[in-house]
Design a protein that fits this description.
Elements lengths: L1 H19 L5 H10 L1 H8 L1 H18 L1 H6 L11 H9 L3 H29 L4 H22 L3 H20 L14 H16 L17 H20 L5 H9 L8 H26 L5 H6 L7 H22 L11 H35 L1 H5 L8 H11 L6
């Protein structure tokens, strides 16, 4: 138990670093750990490393709301959520946006832990049918989004354009450094589609004064966001090939992120954390690895599911307190020139893209930013850029993996 607690503390520290630095994902840390396993295992032991990995994943779910809100840069978990969060920051309500995200992450964790006990028992016999139906579910969701759009034709073209870009990115992901591989392309891909394109289109002037006077979201909205986010996190956490970014797109069909920004933020945060917990349950139940952290866990001796849940719960509590504390950074940004800040952020993202995926990462970042501009030019929701993730997942689900 001492190893678990020490690993939890280390994981919170790692998740803090990966969460507040844009472009750095906890899966990156998992890849580094795997590369250094022969050195780390004798020093810390497997239970310490397992607890550190899972705690870092949970902590990251909370803290990645900070760069999404204040800098407007997403990672794979906050692709669409960055739009309403950054918009609230530009209205002087950045701290509220971060606190709502933290509340959603807590809701996802509280809902996810008991749900996993049910999943461990009920889901293994149904797994073959679930694998077969995942692609059909995504096609149905995409069709629903297009039908509801004010411009289905432009939505379809944007969805296909971003989907072709996603296929290209994953098909040639071997051009990225082998340590990170396919996961390395997500950073420049999603940052270009949902970050750089938005920052280049944003207005000029100073960041407005930030103020916090409570959460402007009713209890009914909290309940709705928790249930919708929990359901989306459950689906993408268990179905093969899906991700948090897919959950963001699915939730956009149920919660309008331009009209109900706070509800959407809470729902996506709940989905992200639920996905992390359910992904661990899927590993224990059917031996499927849903993310880089669980893949790293599969390479070492890991503790029991209840012990890892203890680690996840403790790290979630610590991460919530850290997120609330750091949400006050909004006041530091008051008066900063937005154009200069956006230039710094774009340069930082370009550097991280190069470090994670090399020259291919820079090339992909430029292409993604160009595609991400399409919704702005034709005035359609940015959600259709989720084709970059959803189309490759559909093809994978239908057994078309050689593209």
């Amino acid at each position: 138990m001492i190893e678990i607690l020490a690993g939890t503390a280390a994981g919170v520290a790692l998740g803090l670093v990966s969460g507040i630095l844009p472009g750095i994902h906890v899966n990156t840390l998992a890849g580094i750990m795997l590369a250094s396993l022969s050195l780390l295992l004798p020093l810390f032991g497997p239970f310490f490393l397992a607890a550190a990995l899972f705690s870092a994943l949970i902590t990251h779910c909370f803290l990645d709301a900070i760069p999404s809100t204040f800098l407007g840069i997403p990672d794979a978990d906050t692709a669409l959520a960055v739009l309403p969060a950054h918009a609230l920051c530009m209205e002087g309500k950045g701290e509220e946006a971060v606190r709502i995200s933290a509340l959603g992450s807590v809701a996802g964790l509280v809902l996810g832990i008991p749900l996993c006990a049910v999943l461990l028992v009920m889901m293994p016999p149904l797994q073959s049918a679930i694998d077969w139906g995942s692609g059909i579910i995504l096609v149905a969701v995409t069709g629903f989004l297009l039908v509801r759009s004010e411009s289905p034709a432009w939505g379809f073209l944007t969805f296909c354009a971003s989907g072709i870009l996603g296929i290209f990115a994953f098909r040639y992901s071997y051009l990225a450094p082998p340590l990170l591989g396919e996961g390395a392309v997500l950073m420049p891909l999603l940052s270009g589609l949902f970050g750089i394109s938005v920052l280049l289109h944003s207005g000029k002037g100073a960041i407005p004064p930030q103020h916090f006077s409570g959460l402007e979201i009713p209890r009914k909205g909290i309940l709705k966001g928790t249930l919708l986010g929990g359901a989306a996190g459950l689906v993408v956490g268990w179905l093969p090939g899906l991700s948090n970014a897919t959950a963001n797109g699915v939730l956009a069909s149920a919660v309008n992120y331009t009209r109900d920004r706070r509800g959407y933020l809470l729902a996506t945060s709940a989905a992200n954390t639920m996905n992390s917990v359910v992904g661990l349950a899927a590993f224990f139940a059917v031996e499927r690895t849903r993310n880089g952290v669980v893949a790293a866990l599969s390479m070492i001796e890991y503790p029991s599911f209840p012990l890892l849940m203890v680690s996840g719960t403790l790290s979630g509590l610590a991460a919530y307190l850290l997120t609330i504390r750091l949400s006050g950074v909004a006041k530091i940004l008051e008066g900063l020139d937005r154009s200069r800040l956006n230039t710094i952020v774009i340069a930082f993202v370009a550097v991280v893209s190069f470090l994670s995926a090399g020259v291919f990462g820079i090339f992909l970042l430029v292409l993604a930013a160009a595609v991400g501009f399409i919704p702005r030019l034709v005035n359609i929701p940015q959600v259709f850029c989720m084709g970059s993730i959803m189309i490759p997942v559909m093809l994978y689900s239908f057994g078309i993996g050689g593209i």
